[in-house]
């Protein structure tokens, strides 16, 4: 088998990402949002918005809520249908600021939520003032939602993320290697995800465990991206 073919096989290997309540890493930057999700259905208002950067844990938190609430999942094209059908089944609206929703369908769904007290959890990367909608209709409704922001992770959380994501891939990595990575990487949850994927590929291509040398190589590759 050629090196290129071998590398392609390595890139195609999949893994399961655990996204249960027990797998969610609670810290000072997300504990309020997590507590709110876990308090469902005892919400003071039907609508909730969780804002955070890419890979900050929004989708994980949203899926925890969706399972607990038995929520329907909205998307471009079916949000209008969910609003028209009505009812009080909870609805998950992910990436409300960038997923291609028509403004009118999202507006109708939020109106129906307010009218019938239908629980809705929305996620977004940006604050509502930055959402790409032409009128103030959607934004004015979203301002009535309970809002939570997920902030940048600290060293402890970044280390915990490495441990979890390596475990998802059934990889055992020396804690000293993880400390080495945390002390030198770009400080974001998204970077942890990218590094774990890259380290897994490098380890497989070399046929050996993830060492500090491989970690250093991965950091250089990521810095040159």
TrEMBL record:
A GO molecular function annotation here is: DNA replication origin binding
Q: Gene Ontology cellular component?
A: plasma membrane
Which biological process terms from the Gene Ontology are attached to this UniProt entry? DNA replication initiation
Q: Which InterPro entries match?
A: P-loop_NTPase
- The protein here is known as Chromosomal replication initiator protein DnaA
